[in-house]
Design brief:
With 257 residues, the chain is of the alpha+beta class. The protein contains six helices and 14 strands. The protein folds into two domains: 76 residues; 161 residues, Nucleoside Triphosphate Pyrophosphohydrolase. Helix content is 22%, strand content 32%.
Length: 257
């Protein structure tokens, strides 16, 4: 087991940065980062960004200095590398145990651009009202709370699917152009009967900010049996143990929260 760090050569935000990785496990990486005093916001899904001024301290804490190509090679050989587009930020890689009895390995990512529509099988809308409260529904099939959303129908665009699901599950009518892409989830088959082919493996996350406080809701179909407006703390209680929570927290957590 080793923690590897490359020289601070990557320039961003007026500073130079190194990349800290583990060649064994993300858990080991997180544990080392905590011991070294690295902030959680520096985590990028498969590595920590380390500012130049912290480089020497991280090396002194036990990270082994290597060249950048060795960092990339270690991530690839360990299977820990998280693929992402330029500008996207990795949040977490998690195992999802699904209602049909299968499981998937899911990469949770932040990103302000929509992903390739051809690969999107599902769209979810994170609705926030003028007071900062959140809209959740209780799924009959999943037997759990979560933001409104669901699978695309044949011929639908991703945005069309998102506003249709929002309307069917909550009664709210939204302009598709008002949806703001904030992240996505990428599913990979774990070999237990799940069906996540590379060509249809993405869930698109949108955010919708409303100008009013807690508008009235209504259930139009029976795939959800409750709809609620909740505070941030209530959202944490209802959804904080679900596999997708890290990306919701990353894009929704109130400033200073």
């Amino acid at each position: 087991m080793a923690l590897l760090i490359d020289p601070p050569r990557f320039e961003a935000h007026g500073r130079r940065w190194s990349h800290l990785v583990s060649d064994t496990s993300i858990e080991e990486l997180h544990a080392f980062a905590r011991r070294a005093g690295l902030p959680a916001w520096g985590y990028e899904g498969d590595h920590y960004d380390v500012p130049e001024e912290r480089y020497a301290a991280v090396v002194a804490a036990g990270a082994r200095p290597v060249e950048g190509r060795e960092v990339v090679r270690a991530l690839r050989s360990s299977g820990l590398r998280m693929r992402k587009r330029k500008g996207d930020r990795g949040v977490a890689r998690v195992r999802a145990d699904l209602p049909d009895g299968t499981s998937a390995l899911v990469d949770l990512l932040r990103g302000g651009r929509e992903v390739d529509e051809r690969r999107v099988f599902c769209a979810v809308v994170l609705v926030v009202d003028a007071g900062g409260d959140h809209l959740v529904v209780h799924s009959v099939r999943r037997r759990q709370w979560g933001p409104p959303g669901g699978e695309r129908d044949p011929g639908e665009t991703v945005r069309e699917a998102a506003v249709r699901e929002l309307h069917e599950e909550t009664g709210l009518v939204a302009d598709p152009t008002a949806l703001v892409p904030v992240g996505y989830e990428r599913f990979a088959d774990l070999g237990d009967g799940g069906t996540w082919p590379p060509g249809r493996d993405l869930l698109q996350l949108y955010r919708l900010d409303l100008p009013e406080r807690r508008p009235a809701t209504a259930r139009l179909l029976d795939d959800v049996d409750d709809v609620r407006w909740v505070t941030w703390d209530e959202l944490v209680t209802l959804c904080g143990d679900d596999f997708y929570w890290p990306v919701l927290e990353a894009v929704l957590r109130p400033r200073g929260g």
